[in-house]
UniProtKB/TrEMBL annotation:
This is serine C-palmitoyltransferase. GO terms for cellular component: endoplasmic reticulum; membrane. It holds the Pfam family Aminotran_1_2. It comes from Gossypium gossypioides (Mexican cotton). Belongs to the class-II pyridoxal-phosphate-dependent aminotransferase family.
Length: 223
C-alpha cells in the first residue's frame, strides 16, 4: 500500500451506472479515516449499505489478530455455506474477538484518538516535505506516509536496492525503523517502489521530529 485513498464516492456512482459489486478492504482505513474512524465509507460520505462486502484485518487499528467480513444477510449467509476460506480455515479464538470488541469500544469512547492521529500525520508530512532526493507520494490524510525517489536510477531493481540501503542505514545509524516496499507479482497495477512509514497515535511529537531529522541526514548522505 502506498498511502493512497480510493475515491469511493466516485466508484459508487460508477457502480450505480454499470451495475457491478463493490468489495471494500478497510484494513488500512478502519479505525483511522473518517470523523470517528469508521473508515473509508465515513470519510467519503458513502452509506455503508451501498457496499456489497466490507472486509478488514484486525491487526492494524484494533491491535489484535484475524479479520472480519460483513455485508447483507443474504451475502454473508452465502459466504458461510459456500466460501472455501470459511470451510478450510479455523474460527477466530474468542479472546481475539473480545480484544477487537474492546478496541472498538476504546475508539468510540475516545474520539480524540483520531484527532491525535491526524495531528501526527501532519507533523510527519511537514517534517519530510523538504527531504533531499525523496518526495511524499501518499495522501496527506493517510497514516501510511510513502516516500519515492525524485529521480530513478534507471531500473526498478536498482531503485529498490537504493531504498533498502537507505532503510538499513536509518536503522543501524539512527535507530529509525522504516520499510522499503517491494512490488508483488500479483499486483494488477504496479506501484512505484518506495519507503513506507506508519504513523500512530502512540508517537510523540519528539518521536516524529527525530524520525524526520534522522531520515533527512541519511538521505542527504546517500542521494
Amino acid at each position: 500500500n502506498s498511502g493512497q485513498i480510493a475515491p469511493l464516492d466516485k466508484i459508487i456512482k460508477l457502480k450505480e451506472k454499470y451495475r457491478f459489486r463493490v468489495l471494500l478492504d478497510e484494513t488500512n482505513s478502519f479505525g483511522v479515516l473518517g470523523r470517528t474512524g469508521r473508515g473509508l465509507t465515513e470519510y467519503c460520505g458513502v452509506p455503508i449499505e451501498k457496499i456489497d462486502i466490507v472486509t478488514s484485518a484486525m491487526g492494524h487499528a484494533l491491535a489484535t489478530e484475524g479479520g472480519f467480513c460483513t455485508g447483507s444477510a443474504r451475502v454473508i449467509d452465502h459466504q458461510r455455506l459456500s466460501s472455501s476460506g470459511y470451510v478450510f480455515s479455523a474460527s477466530l479464538p474468542p479472546y481475539l474477538a473480545s480484544a477487537a470488541i474492546t478496541a472498538i469500544d476504546i475508539l468510540e469512547q475516545n474520539p480524540d484518538l483520531t484527532s491525535k492521529l491526524k495531528e501526527n500525520i501532519a507533523i510527519l508530512w511537514k517534517g519530510l516535505s523538504d527531504i533531499r532526493g525523496l518526495s511524499i507520494a501518499s495522501n496527506p490524510e493517510s497514516p501510511i506516509v510513502f516516500l519515492v525517489l525524485e529521480k530513478s536510477t534507471g531500473s526498478v531493481k536498482s531503485d529498490l536496492q537504493l531504498l533498502e540501503d537507505i532503510a538499513d542505514r536509518a536503522l543501524k545509524q539512527e535507530s529509525i525503523f522504516v520499510m522499503a516496499s517491494k512490488r508483488s507479482t500479483l499486483d494488477k497495477c504496479p506501484l512505484p517502489v518506495g519507503i513506507r512509514l506508519f504513523v500512530s497515535t502512540a508517537h510523540s511529537e519528539f518521536d516524529l521530529l527525530k524520525a524526520c531529522e534522522s531520515l533527512k541526514r541519511v538521505a542527504a548522505a546517500m542521494l
